[in-house]
Amino acid sequence: MAGKDVVVVIEHWAGEIDGSSLQLLGKGRDLADALGSELVAAVLGDQVEPLVAALQTRGLDRIVTVMDARLHYYNGDTYAHVLARLVGQLQPALVLTGYTLVGMELAPALAARLGAPLLTNGVDIDLRDGQVVVTRPLFGGIYQARVAIEAAGPAVVTIQKGAFPVRDVAPRSARVEAMPAALEGLQERCRVIEVTEQAAGALDITKADILVGVGRGVGEAAKIPLCHSLAEALGAGVCCTRPMVDLGWMPVEMQVGTSGKTVVPNVFLALGISGASQFSVGMKDSRLIIAINKDPGAPIFQVAHCGVVADMFSLLPLLTQEAAKLGR
Fold first, then answer.
1. Nearest Cα to 206, choosing from 254, 275, 162, 270?
2. In terms of domains, do 155 and 34 share one?
3. What whole-number percentage of the chain has pLDDT above 90?
């Protein structure tokens, strides 16, 4: 590899660092130590000084900022252009970003500009016999492949949100370096017109103490109210898998997983959820996971603490009645 440093691209919104970036900083510290190199944060945006202050407690050696009004909102063209220039100057061994909606677009664009290898949707990354090895799921999480990076230059890797815990790292006195955006002459093919946020008062599933998760095993949209009835009896929130959103049966705000939200409730009740890795990574750190599925081989049972092999609709009325008796 041309260099040894590890660069983590910091994803942020409204002055808050995304959880995917925080988890990568802990893992990035381990990789940088194993490589005998530095851990570097790349922060793009407009007036990112508060983010820099927050990053000073995250075990970084360097923080490189690029500030410009045109970077206020994420834009794939603009961010890829700026980040390619930054990585070209730093020449690190690795560029890490989350396998998020932003990372899914940004990482391929960055790798294409750099002519660098790209590994996406990773669930683990470590150093083995001097080589960086990324573990990624295959066939919906049924298998896992370990892929070694052998390229001489920087490699771009995206990691699933929730793959690692966010952990405290001994703070270091990180050097802060500013780089110009150098956007003169860049022709943007798209621009952000408007950003709308979830309506005030809507349930934030990331803060729920108990969650009832609904999967494709529900069979039809008409049966979803039965799951809501159980959630109401439990005093729980309701969330879902991506297929439920794709079918138009439930709103995207309820989606859990790599392309949704990461949740860590005290109790997660999975109803008719097969448990593909793209979903499980978003809830596997829940304190107690209870799964009901009629397929005994469903992957959800690999992460569940308690599993019931049954038709969930034979149990839902009984569970709802018992929960109502508890007076929650």
1. 254
2. yes
3. 68
